Amino acid sequence: MFARKFRQHGALHLSTYLKTYKVGDIVDVIGNGAVQKGLPHKFYHGKTGVVYNVTKAAVGVIVHKRVGNRYLEKRINVRIEHVHHSKCRDDFLRRVKENAAKAKAARENGERVLLKRQPAQPREARFVSTKNNEPTTIAAIPYDTLI
User: How far apart are CA 2 and CA 32, in angstroms?
Assistant: First the structure.
């Protein structure tokens, strides 16, 4: 679980320590086996939470833990080697920017534009020509024992 990947052993990259975390950031808790200090419990490995506290070497993360039939808000303190910025909001933020640009262009042109995501629509109807394409009848092969 916390073992390092093949050819990824050794000291951590400096960029791990140079990342900036702010209160409210969404982070993924991923335990790094190269550093045992501040390692989260194995339950929190792979969980996503929100930063609520930042210190010089660690961050406090709020993670929701399922206990029985309810979710408890757990506050864990984890060193920054064991957290990464989550990519879960990247697609949403990209769509917000695209929608703002589309809405601005539509306002300038005086037209309405649909900004909501649309599910995949059914394919359009079409005719299949049988001119050089004779239909074939497909039937199941009867079961036969080879004894």
Answer: 6
